[in-house]
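Tutorial handout. Part one gives the primary structure; part two gives the three-dimensional structure as tokens.
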Amino acid sequence: MKSRLANTRLVRAAPLLAVAIFQAGCARPSRRELARMTAESQVRTAERARFEAMMNHDVAALDTLLADDLTYVHTGGDLQTRSQFLNTIRKQELIYESITPSNVRVRVYDGLALATGTSEMRVRNSAGLNSFAIRFTEVYVRRDGHWVLAAWEATRLAT
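Part two.
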């Protein structure tokens, strides 16, 4: 009799338990999680804006998207400072015809974000037009309320 009563209580409690589990799964994100998701979205937006500015030779836009202490390592290992990179774009020594990122993963930490991914590139330089795939790592820092690129390093992938 006691076990039948326990089973009845369990059967009656099961729908309430199911609702509680469902509500826990649908709970609103915490403030911290919401801030992380917002920052990740902002970093992705900054990345897209930077790639667009590079393809459009928009040095004024790039000026707002790059940290003053930027280090930019190209696929061949060449290291450029912020001013060197901007001059390369300004003088059209390197023309980014297309940049198609994929598999981008953004991880956000306190005031810093790391992004990794791959991209298909079409780049024109003095040697001509080159199409290739890269794997990249980016470091963004939050300065004056905006995410700016502080470091870039890319490696060509085997074709």
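Part three, for discussion. Strands lie at 66-73, 79-81, 95-109, 112-125, 128-143, 146-156. The longest strand covers residues 128-143.
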